[in-house]
Amino acid sequence: MGIRKLGYVGLDVTDVAAWTDLLGRTLGVGVTRVKSGTEEVALAELDEFKYRVALYPSTEDSPRELGWIVDSPPELDRLTQRLAAAGFAVADGSADEKELRGATHLRWFTDPVGYRVELAVGEAKVRLAAERPAGGPGVTGLGHFVLAGPKVEELRELYESVLEFKLTDYRAPGLFFFRCNRTHHSIALTNADTPSIHHLEFEHGSIDDVGRAYDRAKANDVPISISLGRHMNDKAISFYVRNPSGFHLEIGCGGIEVGDDWVPHDFGRSDEWGHHHADANPFATPTA
Predict the structure, then answer these.
(1) What is the CATH number of the domain that holds 95?
(2) Which of 58, 73, 134, 187 is the most exposed place for a label (fewest CB within 10 A)?
């Protein structure tokens, strides 16, 4: 009960055309442009629902909203009460915002590092299935994101104690993975001087889909920022590209699911194999 899954991410971006090219040519993800109020928004269609990533034209690149899907209106009310008791001011989303997200109910608050976090009830199912490149299902949905920034303990308190996420595992001293369903993690938190999304992950249907995306990335000269590899903790096989906003986009498949009997633990090293970074790896030795 409560938060069911990661629903969508909104990004302010300086180059919508470059994002659209990356999504289309390399990942086979369609983009629809719509009007929301006075803004034109590009919606990335990862699955049969209306969208999972919204791109807002802007003069800077930054996260705009992080959206979680809640089970029901009563659960939304219960979480609102928990947030208010913890000192967070919760507001209703506007009619335009609800329409864009395909939600029947929408509320939002600001997290400890200044990001807008949304809680939505309802998703608009607008197609039987998204169009995909030949050879496989390709992208099947939005997986998770890693939030880097200061105030990690305050963020942990928010997600674990207030929003009722469960700690899956961690790497001492400063990298924590949380789940809101059976998927290994929907969000991870780690320390950094300034807030940012370290990466956003797109789920793929198979290792062959990941491999085909890797080939298209190479053919299209997309910068591969982290090579193909398998993570130690969730066992996912993936690679990462540097997206037009400067952070990583993870292309992965095969992450494990966990149950209520799972025991949180320090999983030690970051990878079973691979995942070599083109630049310095900030997670090689997580800072305190």
Answers:
(1) 3.10.180.10
(2) 134
Q: How many other C-beta atoms lie within 10 A of the C-beta of residue 269?
A: 9
Condensed to tens digits (0 to 9), the pLDDT of residues 165-202 reads 999 999 988 999 999 999 999 999 999 999 999 999 99
Rounded CA separation 235/4 (Å): 22
What pLDDT score does 280 carry?
86
pTM over 0.90: yes
Q: How many domains does the chain have?
A: 2
45-81 pLDDT, tens digit each: 999 999 999 999 999 999 999 999 999 999 999 999 9
Rounded CA separation 55/261 (Å): 38
What is the maximum alpha-carbon separation in the chain? 52
Domain boundary among 86, 121, 156: 121
DSSP 81: H
Query: By residue range, what is the domain housing residue 182?
Result: 139-274
> How far is Cα 234 from Cα 68, in angstroms, rounded to an integer?
21
User: Is position 159 within any domain?
Assistant: yes
Indicate whether 134 belongs to any domain: no
Mean pLDDT of the 254-278 span: 96
Q: Which helix (H) or strand (E) holds 246?
A: none
Average pLDDT (86-105) is 97
- The pLDDT of residue 283 is above 90: no
Let me know if residue 132 belongs to a domain. no
What is the DSSP code string of 171-219? ETTTEEEEESSSBS-SEEEEE-SS-EEEEEEEEESSHHHHHHHHHHHHH
Contact 44, 23 (CB under 8 A): yes
**Which residues, at least 6 apart from 69, have a Cβ–Cβ distance to it below 8 Å?**
3, 4, 5, 6, 7, 120, 121, 123
